[in-house]
Batch of 2 targets.
Target 1
Amino acid sequence: MDDSTVFTEKTTDSVSKIFNVDEVRADFPILSRMVKEKPLVYLDNAATTQKPQAVIDSIVHYYTYENANIHRGLHFLSELATESYENARLKVKEFINAMSASEIVFVRGATEAINLVASSLCRANYFGDGDEIILTEMEHHANIVPWQLLCERKNLKIRVIPIDDNGDLDMDTFKSMVNEKTKLVSVVHISNSLGTINPVKEIINYSHEHDIPVLLDGSQSTPHIKVDVQELDCDYFVFSGHKVFAPTGIGVLYGKTFRLDDLPPYQGGGDMIRKVTFEETTFNDLPHKFEAGTPNIEGGIALGTAIDYLSQFDREVLSNYEDKLLKYATAKLSEIDGLKIIGTAKEKASVVSFIIEGIHPYDIGTLLDTYGIAIRTGHHCTQPIMQRYKLPATARASFTFYNTLEEVDRLVEGLLRVKKMFS
Ligand SMILES: Cc1ncc(COP(=O)(O)O)c(C=O)c1O
């Protein structure tokens, strides 16, 4: 047994499955495929994660044995599908430790969740003339553009917490920005392009001292760390299923009950109503008020399966292993002449953005692909970050618990070959 890949850990109330990276890799069929006649090295996990067989099987199982529309039918299959879907909601509740399953709204992904909050706050006339929304300089476009669209409808101002060269938030400036016009703080928990783990607890506490609600974009935190929304005390929390080993097209908006109660519906249609006449409609209870139309039933169920899969392990053990990958990759990449890591915050998740002097990131990505190594290049939907560092793009390797130290070595080897070709 290689001690870099095997951990045994006991949680307080249960014994978690032993984490063995070789066994874990065998759970993800795609990881054993060849790409360009080389074994695949998949290092684009911040964009989307691969799916364990259990998740793939749960979709097949659903369509083979359970497929029916939910909530409306009295027949056997409809009841079965409804039960599976609502069970998945309960699993999500446990996954982020929400107070109640009715605080879990299924949406298409983090992007839709933020658009839902922005649109419903607007319809609720929550914002007044000249009110301010605070974001950070490292937001994904999904947490910028919905608020800009809102600014077009209301006379609002977006204020931006700057970062330092390492990619740490300037918390003093944040505190000086908060004033009586501030109506919402909406920040990314972990940055997808820099890997920074933001001091969200401090942001939430400070905002709450000033009666300001906080939305957390948990797209990159849910795959890497155990999230507890009650402990964080955030008002809204969003994430996407496909980044936590579930399919695309399913995601979650969490909101404290009183926050969701205060929001009007986002879309109208079936399932979200209690009574409809041509004169008037009354709306369903939470969370169904926000779930108009037939949802992504198999996606919800498969998200539940992905959560079951993750829950076999002690999340801290997985996080520690990813940290080991991050530290190893950071050390190895730093040895490459002319390579600069973008994002060196004190607290980081396993995301490494970098540039190499004289080589465009697109060339790095394209050449690595010929060696079977998948990384991401571009602005990572965080163009303001690129402007901050005066870069057109970066190359980004993002790791998860099924990656290995050997894969880091293959990345380094690949980069040295790329450098040689350009020298
Ligand atoms: C930090 C962050 N926020 C939001 C999103 C948007 O997620 P989705 O496209 O799944 O809605 C992403 C996706 O890359 C992300 O990394």
Note: The CA atoms of residues 120 and 266 lie 6 Å apart.
Target 2
Amino acid sequence: MQPKSHEVKRASELAIVVGVQFGKIDDRTFSDSLGELKELVYSAEAKVVGTITQKRPMPDSRTFIGTGKVDELKSMKEATGANLIVFDDMLSAAQVRNLEKELEVKVIDRGNLILDIFAKRATTSEAKIQVELAQLQYLLPRLTNMWSHFSKQVGGIGTRGPGETQLEVDRRIIKTKIATLKERLEKVDRQRATQRKRRQDVYKIALVGYTNAGKSTLFNHLTKAGVWADNLLFCTLDAVTRFLPLNSKYRIVISDTVGFIQKIPHELVASFQSTLDEVRYADLLLHIVDISHPNAIEHYEKTNEVLDEIGAGQVPRLLILNKSDLISIEEIPSIDLNFPPAHTFSISAKTHAGMDNLLNFLTSFVEKDIGARIGIAKNPDGKARNSYR
Ligand SMILES: Nc1nc2c(ncn2[C@@H]2O[C@H](COP(=O)(O)OP(=O)(O)OP(=O)(O)O)[C@@H](O)[C@H]2O)c(=O)[nH]1
Ligand SMILES: [Mg+2]
């Protein structure tokens, strides 16, 4: 099956990206983060028309950047016709309000941008609930009077308490909505737990890694599933699970999952817990790294951090260095990846180089792992359970 094509509209918004290099942040980390922000803007279907950077020991409490830079930003906005300003770091409600007032244009931060991409990509009802919950939780502490239109949209008789300010009403409405969404998610969690029980005797593999590493491309090759894979950040939001046709007598499933990124809003990780169950309850993780990316090591480390954060730090894993077609062997970073050579594989999900080697290892690894598990879970009569078949 051919991967589904998704039409991606381009450049309905023109954006200026803004980065501030604080005290200890080195030049490379700073420029990499800003480069990634530009990719995020592109993935959100907007076009970057300008960049503003500043070195400061600390952010300005009022406008994040200094007054001179605000003027520079305003001139650039006028010259380029930009209708969106995106900051690479988290802004406070007051900073957004002050900047919007002075610049007369919409101002958002990296967190808003990631949430917006997620909102665009969410297709299943579960993903929609998760994204909306994360958006509202992100919004709540940043709520200012400018959001008063929100209550007008959803409010009405009974939404306004005596003596409450508009801001308090907005907060109350959002908190109620958050509670409703949480209830709906709990229901989804229960359904997932039931499904998981049914799948207890199936060996579960999950693909994990930084966004754009090639997880879906590999998943499509292994399962012929035809999920969306593209050179955009966060193509995949929902976990998709398929049987993995390995040359084995056991039943094995594999899941494609959402990618990770640095500076991800923690509200998002928190509300995607049920999707991330596929990772947490997996028997084996395949950690995919785009080894051709200049920040491959940082991506690898960030992914490990998020895996720890979601409680998947102890799940056994193999390391897959993908996109090997784009670099020569000598260019593969020599940094110790904390993996024994037997558990590290260099492949190309695109040209299929290294795939036989990976699949042969995977087949024997899974057989041995299941064998060990069945050995442990013997019936009282001493016979092995007929599981995983
Ligand atoms: N050259 C090359 N490109 C690859 C390879 N694997 C994937 N790609 C490309 O990398 C881009 C991202 O691939 P995806 O499979 O969508 O990556 P992903 O990890 O699923 O990304 P998200 O779902 O966005 O987190 C696509 O343009 C793929 O065609 C590879 O081995 N070699
Ligand atoms: Mg994907």
Note: Confidence is low (pLDDT under 50) at residues 1-9, 146-162.
